[in-house]
Amino acid sequence: MSKLVTIGGHKVGRGEPVYIIGEIGINHNGDLDIAKRLISAAAHAGCTAVKFQKRTPELAVPPEQRNVMRETPWGLMTYMDYRYRVEFGEKEYAEIERHCKEMEIDWFVSVWDTEAINFMERFNPVCYKLPSASLTDFELIRACVAAGRPLILSSGMSTMEQIHAGMALVDPDNTVLCHSTSTYPCSPEELNLRMIETLSREFDCPIGYSGHETGLVTTVSAVVLGACLVERHITLDRAMWGSDQAASVEPGGLERLVKYIRVTEQAMGDGVKRVYESEMKGMKRLRKG
Questions:
Q1: pLDDT single digits (tens) 60-101
Q2: In the chain, what are the helix, strand and coil shares in percent, each to the nearest 5?
Q3: Which of 8, 112, 178, 213 has the fewest CB atoms nearer than 10 Å to its CB?
Q4: What is the pLDDT at residue 2?
């Protein structure tokens, strides 16, 4: 059996309830009210946590992209100005922390640069997430490990060699590795859910699933295949502006997803064949001898 990792007050690993994350990311579009509504929706649905993304634009945006013009709901602006427009600061995260405590739900962020870690440390997050794009950023991985908090790694757009190289830098007793395909939205043919089983054989740590597909059934299937942690992007409306909205789950769908996962957990059993008390009456009536 793989190790258990504790995130907040929750144990993550085989035999434990699936740690379900509503990934808000930047689907709030820089609007704190939208962020709070998404937190409330995730808590109402029964998610364990919500997650945001934290970047330091001057560090995370490559120089060649900074002055590229972009159409946005706020007009035409440079990509750098757009990144600042949707980035929350200390005031917003303080309110997010307050609201999450009120809703009794964990919260944390994906960090895209080392300064983002320094910024987030003041909030004492339950863990950090390293996005797939940063799996080969060894400096950032080392900074996450140095923070001493549980770490969730996503493995989209990565080879097995790159996954092994990243995992060699972390503490497996304090790490959850997520299978992922970094296409938004991702077609079923490229989800490759059996990678959950492959990663379980390769690494002695809990394995999760970060999904970017449309629909719910494949995410539930990931749980059947052994995912101990599940992450899906969430939104108030998939028609909202933003690159992640189309691969996100609306509040009603999120409620169904959490319910389906919890029912699936109950149905998995322990693999030991037994005759249940509920079967006895039918057995006596239908069997001869």
A1: 999 999 999 999 999 999 999 999 999 999 999 999 999 999
A2: 45, 20, 35
A3: 8
A4: 61
Element (H, E) at 193: none
- How far apart are alpha carbons 12 and 113 in whole angstroms? 26
Tokens at 243, concatenated:
């690159």
Distance CA 229, CA 216 (A): 15
Superfamily of domain 5-286: Aldolase class I (3.20.20.70)
The two tokens of residue 229 are: 């942690």
Amino acid at 178: C
Q: Is the peptide bond before 57 cis (omega within 30 degrees of 0)?
A: no
Contact (CB, 8 A) for 57 and 82: no
Question: What letter would DSSP give residue 191?
Answer: T
Cβ-count burial of 273 within 10 angstroms (0-12 exposed, 13-18 middle, 19+ buried)? exposed
Q: Are strands 207-211 and 175-180 parallel, antiparallel or unpaired?
A: parallel
On whether the pTM is more than 0.85, the answer is yes
